[in-house]
């Protein structure tokens, strides 16, 4: 592959380009040898335009018209393919020779899916809390899987090490401008299909990549006055803690069952987003997130991870109305969009196991 022919300095420059895109690929030396452009490296994105449906049950629960943006039907099972797919395509276009991605599961699924499309080798590093079902799915997509550490942050350290020693491009699950740019497409789709802008967007926050992408999208379509309601679970509430302290906070551990929300520290960009837009942080209990998963399965016949349940729980538990009563949202809302972020790492048996773990039976 072209990579082997490149000089060390150029290699370093390229990996820096990917880490710090302000250096930009197109500012790179024109003598850089590029990998042959395959069709998958072309600009056609890997994600689909996801359905936007009105949910009667969530509208009833939220007391307003609620639209669900169904990111759970994306390739690889979540919104992650938007940004991760974009980052992988860009990295491949610039001639990298392999990817490494640390993940709670879904970013890895998206990266493995993109790598397969691009014909690129990938190693996904997951913490031991990522279930065997997800590991199997990653392997089925052709990824090499390494289990390292107990939480995502530890897996991430290993991924950074591999990127350095093996010369692979690190596909960060949430903290990269190209990831945010890819996620921003979600807002453009909302703009294309809604007659009027929503009065709020509800989404889950892990490391803050989805939040950063939605804020980028709101800027792009001129909707920066739309409030965002950011959901987390206690025990994975690194964004809530950072907002309260007005600086990045590292949680001592991830104790929530919503492991995919479990970055102990959010991206710095997540905090900046709260300065640029109205971001209302809300934290739910694990029990509320898991009950929301089950309720959503009953109501909409779709099974999502507790990470997504956290966002749904805001509606099922009446938090929306509470925010209205508190004056943090307008007293009368036209419509609200919930990003159904999805998640591939859940089966009925696992939902059952979570319920008994949390004493919900
Ligand atoms: N999950 C990341 C980080 O995990 C991952 O590696 O898959 N909803 C779902 C279903 C998710 O999988 C994630 C992130 C989020 C929401 C939160 O997205 P973020 O990190 O962009 O805020 C540790």
UniProtKB/TrEMBL annotation:
Domain Tryptophan synthase beta chain-like PALP: where?
49-342
Q: Which GO terms describe its biological process?
A: isoleucine biosynthetic process; L-serine catabolic process; L-threonine catabolic process; lipid metabolic process
Return the similarity comment.
Belongs to the serine/threonine dehydratase family.
In Pfam terms, one family for this protein is PALP
Keywords attached to this Swiss-Prot or TrEMBL record, sorted alphabetically, are: Lipid metabolism, Lyase, Pyridoxal phosphate, Signal
| UniProt catalytic activity | L-threonine = 2-oxobutanoate + NH4(+); L-serine = pyruvate + NH4(+)
Task: State the encoding gene.
Answer: SDSL
Look up the signal peptide feature and give its range.
1-19
Under InterPro entries, the record lists:
Ser/Thr_Dehydratase (IPR050147), TrpB-like_PALP (IPR001926), TrpB-like_PALP_sf (IPR036052)
Q: Which cofactor does it need?
A: pyridoxal 5'-phosphate
Originating species: Patagioenas fasciata monilis
The record's EC number reads 4.3.1.17, 4.3.1.19
Listed name of the protein: L-serine deaminase
Q: What is the lineage of its organism?
A: Eukaryota, Metazoa, Chordata, Craniata, Vertebrata
Q: Which GO terms describe its molecular function?
A: L-serine ammonia-lyase activity; threonine deaminase activity
Q: Has keyword Signal?
A: yes
